[in-house]
């Protein structure tokens, strides 16, 4: 169905940084320092060479995120609805057929992450793919067709906020990331 996918020009990337940061004591995780830059800046540097355009999904400290030189999208509704709301906001702003989402706190991603995700989806004729590393799936590192915005909206409206459940409802396929040790930095100790 999507066998002839172009990678770079057909993809918008989004750094998901809109969470509450509860495991970081309420800190805005995307702005937490790691090896001389913020977590969001690390992910922007990873995505930028791989996609046509990069966005950041954030819900606070918007001026700081804008200072990184990319467009910032917000969930556009009160409350905290998790990564799916950020994915929806980005899918609505994307002008490409594909959206690649990367959580700001997932470290160790390879430089060809976008190609791995898109090619896996295209080879399977799927509308979505997620990263599968040695330690298991990383659902907030994923690719999805931007025409799934309606399905994202429906899931949120029905109170279904889990990224995993959404991806499975879209028959997402796993992209092989087992040759890289991905780290989900769920707290400050993971950055030490």
UniProtKB/TrEMBL annotation:
Keyword check for Nucleotidyltransferase: yes
GO-annotated molecular function: GTP binding; metal ion binding; molybdenum cofactor guanylyltransferase activity
Every MobA-like NTP transferase domain range: 13-169
Enzymatic reactions: Mo-molybdopterin + GTP + H(+) = Mo-molybdopterin guanine dinucleotide + diphosphate
Location in or out of the cell: Cytoplasm
Transmembrane residue ranges: none
SUPFAM superfamilies: Nucleotide-diphospho-sugar transferases
UniProt cross-references to CDD domains, sorted A to Z: MobA
Pfam families per the UniProt record, alphabetical: NTP_transf_3
InterPro entries: MobA-like_NTP_Trfase, Molybde_CF_guanTrfase, Nucleotide-diphossugar_trans
Domain remarks in the Swiss-Prot or TrEMBL record: The N-terminal domain determines nucleotide recognition and specific binding, while the C-terminal domain determines the specific binding to the target protein.
Entry-linked HAMAP family: MobA
Record's protein name: Molybdenum cofactor guanylyltransferase
């Amino acid at each position: 169905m999507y066998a002839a996918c172009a990678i770079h020009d057909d993809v918008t990337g989004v750094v998901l940084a809109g969470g509450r940061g509860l495991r970081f004591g309420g800190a805005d995780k995307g702005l937490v320092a790691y090896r001389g830059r913020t977590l969001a800046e690390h992910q922007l540097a990873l995505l930028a060479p791989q996609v046509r355009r990069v966005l950041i999904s954030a819900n606070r400290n918007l001026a700081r995120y804008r200072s990184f030189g990319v467009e910032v999208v917000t969930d556009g509704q009160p409350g905290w609805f998790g990564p799916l709301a950020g994915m929806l906001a980005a899918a609505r702003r994307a002008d490409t057929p594909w959206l690649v989402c990367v959580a700001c706190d997932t470290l160790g991603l390879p430089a060809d992450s976008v190609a791995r995700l898109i090619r896996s989806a295209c080879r399977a004729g799927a509308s979505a793919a997620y990263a599968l590393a040695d330690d298991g799936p990383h659902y907030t590192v994923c690719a999805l067709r931007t025409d799934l915005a309606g399905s994202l909206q429906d899931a949120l409206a029905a109170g279904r906020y889990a990224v995993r459940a959404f991806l499975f409802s879209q028959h997402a396929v796993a992209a092989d990331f087992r040759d890289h040790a991905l780290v989900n930095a769920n707290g400050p100790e993971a950055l030490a």
